[in-house]
Amino acid sequence: MEGDGVKFVRWGYEVRTSSEPCISAINSYYHQVMSYGRDRCVILDALDHDNNCVLANILAAHFLLSVDPFRASSCLLSAKLHLENATFYEKLVFESINYLISEERDDDVALQLHSKVLKEFPKDLVTLKRAQILCFYMGRPDLSFSLVNQVLPQNEGENYLYGMLAFPLLELGKMRDAEEAAKRGLNINEEDSWSQHALCHVLQYECRFKEAVNFMEKCSPSWSSLSSFMLTHNWWHVALCYLEGSAPNQRVLEVYDNHIWKELDKTDAHGAEVYLNAVGLLLRLYANWYLEWHLDVLTVWALAKSGKFSEAADLLKGLKERVSRMNIKKQQSMQRAMRLAEAVYAYGTGNDKHGVELLGPDFDAMDYKERAYKLANRPEAEHAKAKAKALEESYFN
């Protein structure tokens, strides 16, 4: 029961605070995370109402880590100072985030701690979201699927859950199941941007480019409240569908100018999130690649390609130094990433031959080859080629 300084967050779990506005701000933050909203800073309002609340402080520390590290450290310290009086739910969330943002973290341990929260508190979909993002960067869609499947019985029919189910399914190549999950998510909430994104992935994978563009452009009025990343990333997918459907390049550039780069005109835009999708689209347009790269690697290529060789070399050197400070396990997992960064630098400087030599014939950046390589020497290759050609000719020309 509420009382004695305990209230409940939206999942129904206890939090030590006497402030209803503090809980309201935490719930608003949870909604912003799940909806990929651009007002995640609302978690700071929770601190204004109860600066001693452990949950508010640890969530704020996680939010602030990349934008204000000093204040993030202050929030983390405050959470630690009041941890003894926190509820069990708060203590587990604190443990998982505190380790996640630590410099010496082991990704496997971080994932175990998030799984521990979900075993005790399966309705906490924001903890699930953090865990899935971690799985994404670990390249483990199987674990991401396992986690969402673990909490599915307790969240049947819950808003935002099915987009979170759809994404690891499509990463695992289970396109029919992914499409079904995404559509169920949209039946619950047609403005669920993660379900929209997942369905676009499926349509794009199946070369249904015009259908994907029509679907996403129909959804686009609901994107105005999205974070810079999610808004520009959804438009990035629209641009790729135009590109892969052999539309005139002008259409791709119109999306870039009017919906991706233009995001920077907004006073609350997050530049790094925009650059990630903007440079990724330019790289895709130039090199005909289809992979999502981390911002640092994209920037190495962009700097080198624009003739700023010393800046690109400095960034590459910085990446190497950063990797050298990681623990041995993390260094091993980053070897391919560094080889990729060096190859992209070579490619950007015009030394394509050296780039190919760095990667070698067996390099696989994300544990799978592009579809063209997967189809090589398989009987369905010719069928896929013919289908793609027919779609290209009928859709956008």
TrEMBL record:
Keywords: Repeat, TPR repeat. The keyword Repeat applies. It comes from the Eukaryota. CDD domains: StaR_like (cd05804). The keyword Repeat applies. Belongs to the TTC38 family. This is Tetratricopeptide repeat protein 38. It comes from Arachis hypogaea.
